Amino acid sequence: MTRKPMLFDVEGPAAQTPVTAPPLHDPEDATAPDGRAMRAAARIGAGRWSWFGRLTAWAFGLFTSLVVTVWLWDFVTGLLARNAALGTAALVLAGALGLALLAWLLREALAWRRLRNLDALRRAADSALALGDAEGARRVALRIARLYHRGDDRAFAARVAEVLDADAVLGLAETDLLRPVDQQARAAIERATRQVAAVTALVPLTLADVVVALVANLTMIRNIAALYGGRAGILGSLRLLRGVFGHLLATGALSVGDDLISSVAGGGLLSKVSRRFGEGVVNGALTARVGLAAMDVCRPLQFQMIARPKLHDILRRSLTGLFDARA
Fold first, then answer.
1. What residues contact residue 251 under an 8 Å CB cut-off, 6+ apart?
2. For a designed S-S bond to 267, which of 8, 43, 239, 261 qualifies (C-beta 3.0 to 4.6 A apart)?
3. Which residue windows are transmembrane per the record (predicted)?
4. What is the largest CA-CA distance in the chain?
5. Weakly modelled stretches of the chain, pLDDT under 50
């Protein structure tokens, strides 16, 4: 049985040519860089334990300390009973270990006190500025001078005494005392930004970028706190890290959009050439945002007479140095 030819009306776009054909789908570029490493590090750094978790940690720590103490006591007394010389040496070493632990606890307490004093100084400055209290502003300025080892600067003290307005007094303290510290803090932010961007772009391991981002940001926050007079220990550093990351997550400053990538010179081009380089740019930009937030948290005075560092300028300097170093 034969079939007759059938005709179909084809209506649609014209045939594609190599010029008009759309580009092939690239799975690597299907998702824009989103700063995965920095957002994961932020969730880790800003994490808070529940009351049950804190209770469990305290109970475990106290129980472990009790077990270690009893074991050391039994070990030293048993060794003294068997051999007086070895027992005496073990007793001396145990005493040295106890003194070292006590010194560490004292150091942590002093570091925590420095952070609290820095917070109190910031609150006193804000209160004097809000109330227009010139005398309170002078006290804050002199405390800042002592904090930065300028307490014996008679010229600065005389200039502070001559100023009558609270905002002018704090502005004088900011320009004379905080300007060099701000420059050092900005350099610390640029170093951390360059490090995170380079590791993210060049190291293809899955968790390496998250670990490096967390360690680099913790080191950067500690350095910034130390520059502003709040050198922190281990516990204080964790407190700073949680406070900075918690503030950024609460305000949505770690959200990534096209405006962030376009703010970096060449960032859009880098993300098209290689997703790893685009991810490095975004992680570096988020690290710079963390550094700026750390400056806001640790700085004893608000930015008033000195302009707050801009994210675009920090990224341009950091990534330009990175590309020069890799060239």
1. none
2. 261
3. 51-73, 85-106, 196-216
4. 115
5. 12, 18-19, 21, 23-31, 256-259, 261-263, 265-269, 271-273, 324-327
Rounded-to-integer distance, Cα 35 and Cα 42, Å: 11
Q: What is the pLDDT of residue 18?
A: 47
Residue length of the chain: 327
Q: Where are the alpha helices (DSSP H) in 228-326?
A: 234-251, 258-262, 267-273, 275-298, 311-326
CA-closest candidate to residue 290, choices 320, 261, 322, 249 = 249
Cβ–Cβ under 8 Å, residues 115 and 225: yes
What is the pLDDT, as a whole number, of residue 232? 79
DSSP string for 137-205: HHHHHHHHHHHTT-TT-HHHHHHHHH--SHHHHHHHHIIIIIHHHHHHHHHHHHHHHHHHHHHHHH---
Helix axes 36-45, 208-227, angle to 10 degrees: 60
From CA 264, how far away is CA 278, in angstroms rounded? 10
Q: How far apart are CA 320 and CA 107, in angstroms?
A: 39
From residue 169, how far is each of 161, 173, 177 by CA, in Å?
A: 9, 6, 12
d(CA 52, CA 290): 30
Alpha carbons 52 and 55: distance in angstroms, whole number: 5
Q: Say which residues have a Cβ less than 8 Å from residue 108's Cβ, sequence separation at least 6.
A: 233, 234, 235, 236
> How confident is the model over 93-126, as pLDDT tens digits?
989 998 999 999 898 888 888 888 888 998 999 9
Q: How far is CA 264 from CA 187, 188, 232, 316, in A?
A: 18, 19, 32, 7
- Contact in structure between 180 and 173 (CB atoms under 8 Å): no
